[in-house]
Amino acid sequence: MEPILLYDTTLRDGTQGENINFSAREKIRIARRLDDIGIHYIEGGFPGSNPRDLEFFKLAREIEFKHARLAAFGSTRRSGISPDDDPNLKTLVESDTPAATIFGKTWDLHVRQIIGITMEENLAMIQESVRFLHENNMEVIYDAEHFFDGYRDNPDYACETLLAACRGGAAGIVLCDTNGGALPFDVEAIIPVIQQKLKDELVKDGNSTSIKIGIHTHDDCGLAAANAIAAVRSGATMVHGTINGYGERCGNADLTTVIPLLKLKLGYDCMTDKNLAKLKKLSRFVSETANMTPLSNRPFVGKSAFAHKGGVHVSAIMKNARAYEHMTPELTGNKRRVLISDLAGKSNVEYKARELGVNLNANGSSSRQIVSEIKKLEQNGFQFDVADGSFKILLEKYTRQFKPLFELESFRVSIEKDKDQPCSSHATIKIAVGDKKEITAAEGNGPVSALDNALRKALEKFYPGLDSMGLVDFKVRVIDGREGTAAKVRVLIDSRDKDQIWSTIGVSEDIIEASWQALADSFQFKLSKKNKP
């Protein structure tokens, strides 16, 4: 099988997604990671449209990419002027990238009704623009915008636009499902027809050069990945997409899904095994850079992609993981997770205890008894499948292995509100570490922040170095709103240090009490790591 070229457009099409925005330097950092994982083409942006992308290409000149070819993005020339006078095309040349990707109109609806030019002028714009870039020593990739809509309405003209790009010297033709409305069986049927037609027409022109066919899909029908795979099965050798599927409206084909499908399921040569194992970290890096919460249920790289909750499932994977997993998680840098909940069985607890390093046989503890206790707690609002830190402490308490590294004596939290000033919060806490006591006070941005600061201040006197631990996320959920303000709340805290992220939980009718439970577990977990015997 012919190798598949991976073309990433996270830095251009991905930034058109709602709430997605990267600075020029953030784009450079992402480009380096894309290059490191072995992406073949990186579309850096639209230098003719904004100063940020101009700055990116200026910064990119100082980088020696090891694997990827950098592409600048733009459009065909404007109607009525020559390519030499078109500022957009000149900016593409000035970007000094080895490749340029330009889009043009394929759908006669756009030609006539949107930009309002003749069909002949549109063909000339495509051919002349591609030729201009080709003559400036750039590899030209032509994006046939709205191809599948255009082919449906006027197949002959849609093909003429592709031929215009080929005759201008395009190295690749990319068929774009810009509106995201195509279906896989349509894509699979159309591409061989297009390949044959291009081949026949180019032979008539005396041109025997083969043209790469690419695919660019959007996810408006939830089929972007399926359409990309259908295109490859039909002969496409270049796949466009974005990391995490970021992009306009419902997004683009998600390369974190498409790449494993191509390599692991279909056997195409598109990435090395070593680089494939970096995929989850790349996904998380792009999410963090975009300030977007990673989707837990994202295939292959999501936190929940290989998570098992049902007791029957866990019992089976302990014997043979293939029973409930379609692949080995580590191939994409992921890992298997076993969740603890009221659906858990003895197998879940035993697997999770082993994973967390807790010996269930200590002091004659029974995993069945632990399961029973967990189900009672979950009935009262706890949710241990999202709180590994608290679950580890719970297991240690049930097996009488828990050794608290501090104990609460008391705390007091006060909130003060002056007429025209924002609320201010103060906390005083008294803790015991062994036979020593410590009382401290602190302020914070809210009562939980004040309590966190006071506890941290008190513990620092016994356990220096807690500044390496920080809060990642703080969530409050009402368990049953029918009780109004008297309802129970669930507080979830995600904390991290340089080595890992852990989650803890608290449940109470009092939000401060629930927050304290989660906060105390978080510090106990951190200190138990730091002070292992």
Q: What's the short story on this structure?
A:
Helices cover about 40% and strands about 20% of the residues. It is an alpha/beta fold and about 525 residues long. The longest helix has 21 residues, at about 185-205.
Give your account of this protein's structure.
- The protein is of the alpha/beta class and 533 residues long.
- The chain folds into three domains: 5-271, Aldolase class I (TIM Barrel), CATH 3.20.20; 307-398, no CATH class; 406-462, Double Stranded RNA Binding Domain (2-Layer Sandwich).
- 40% of the residues lie in helices and 20% in strands.
- It has 18 helices and 16 strands.
- The protein has helices spanning 24-37, 51-60, 87-94, 108-114, 119-135, 147-153, 155-168, 184-204, 224-233, 255-265, 273-276, 279-289, 311-319, 346-356, 367-379, 388-398, 447-459, 511-530; strands at 5-8, 41-45, 69-75, 99-105, 139-145, 172-177, 212-217, 238-241, 307-308, 337-338, 407-416, 424-433, 436-444, 470-478, 489-496, 501-508.
- The strands form four sheets. An eight-stranded parallel barrel has the order 1-2-3-4-5-6-7-8, surrounded by nine helices.
- β7 (212-217), α9 and β8 (238-241) form a beta-alpha-beta unit.
- α6 packs across α7 (155-168), α8 packs across α9 (224-233) and α17 (447-459) packs parallel to α18 (511-530).
- The longest helix has 21 residues, at 184-204.
